[in-house]
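Quick one: co-fold with 4'-deoxy-4'-aminopyridoxal-5'-phosphate.
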Amino acid sequence: MAVAVPLHEIRAEFAELDDPVDRTTYLIEIGRTLPPLDEHFKTEENRVLGCQARVWLVAEERAGPPRRLDFLADSDAQIVRGLIAVLLAAFNGKMPAEILAFPIDKLFAELKLPALVPMRSNGLTAMVRRIQAIAKVAAASEPPAKADSESLPLVPLKPLAREDRSRGNGHPREEQKPLLPATIVTGQPQAASPIDVAAIRRDFPILQTTLADGCPLVYLDNAASTQRPKQVIDSMVEAYEHYYSNVHRAGHRLAVESSAHYEAARESVRQLINARSPTEIIFTPGTTAAINLVARSWGDTNVKAGDEILLTMMEHHSNIVPWQELAQRTGCTIRWTPITDDYQIDLDAFERLLSPKTKLIAITAVSNVLGTINPIDQMIEVAHAAGAVVLIDAAQAVPHEPIDVRARNVDFLAFSGHKMMGPSGVGVLYGREELLDRMPPFLGGGSMIKRVTTEGFEPADLPYKFEAGTPVIVPAIGMGKAIQYLQKIGMQSVRAHELMLTRQAHALLADIPGLRILGPEPEHKGGIVTFVMDGIHPDDISKALDLQGIAVRAGHHCAMPLHERLGITASTRASFYLYNTVEEVGKLAAGMREAQRILGR
Ligand code: PMP
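Sure, here it is.
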């Protein structure tokens, strides 16, 4: 099989193009010249895992000798198709040994691909590895007398029709207008925000900067991680510059001061969620670590074969995999609460699924994809009535709305500092004291003991029993500062501001042809607007938005079962926080129209 666009042409074109928009457009253009892969090759076996979009790759052998290979691949994302075109131009028609010796990294560097598609470098590496693996198998084996389907990963293909390989694709680059900065669309007037966003934005150094190409940053990836105000950054600098020391060990002044700040941060967390006592607040590396702590410590001691853990179809992988691992260890069963077609938890099914076998329900308070605010009060009540313990994944809730663990009768609650303007590396597990008291330590080591002898150890009291080793000292102090910042604004005001932005986003995006929002109406969701667009892969959308300085996230958002339930593999998510503006929501909508134009729809 000839290549769609020869390598020398790709090299020459890339050498002439400086502008990232032109380079991306060219990548999309050469992607369009790829012949489509026959549907029957789009199997799981032929998938290249590790790519954000779906990629299938197969190989065929050219009539020889000498033995030469051709690769054929396809993706549902246009930019990835462009990358595939580069790979095929580099590798097709070569002998296995030539493929293995080909300096592909040098080519990527020459074309400056890593800088152009940083998010796809894992996928690119995965595709190269697959090609090299196939070449290795071919190099090590004798050429088969006839096509041998046993010799996978070599997959024999039918020759392709010549005309499919021509470069013409009906989308000549010259016709495409250069990318213009997104115009601001303000849409219908919205209720005024209760917070002074302009003043808040001045606290965030990163929001004062522009991107490398001078584009202002529109940061709408807050569900993944938020930005930090200067007050939080300064609190950590101050700790390192003036009083840093390990905590709870030495008696010197720095240790005392460090310990006091660390415990003050714990007290800030306690106040924020209204826990009864700071002993119920365990600092962990994040939500994921907090859930794993419960699954290991509580799960291993309270769950046995035949018991059930009840999840919902809208959980993040962090609230799925630890329970699946528990099931592997204990033989318990995972049950799944379905969601309705209007993106809500099916409460009737939830109640039906609860039984005396249900030992724990683990639910997200707010879906990180749909934004749905779940009726956790109601779910906690029925779960408790059925005798189950409740873990709330509050990673998308605590940063955005008031949460009172006592009023809501929560057993376990997990959240992360980096999603609420604190640093990464710190999070919280709240647990009711009676539960935590009965749980064995999760990690063993320094600080989590009262006494160690050659015979054994006696665990420390709460919360230290669960904070083995040197804890996350300065990140916890930064998180404490972020909580103070949030409380000064007021969690009700944060919620009201995000609701205003979400309403605006729904109003503007609903007008875009082919765009479908996944999730309930703004009143029933947090500041998360996830959508799909007819005929355009989310990966391409996010790249097209990124070219306009708009940061959103595309992919499965660590919620593969939910995406499968929705019948899609990926979506695009814009997520807001207290520093986002109505103008930025307008830029998102305008940016989507521009994305449609760039991507030729
Ligand atoms: N649960 C939910 C609902 C989330 O959104 C996230 C982060 N995307 C997590 C859990 C995991 O949080 P972390 O990566 O901070 O551990």
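If it helps, Residues 218 and 550 are 5 Å apart (CA to CA).
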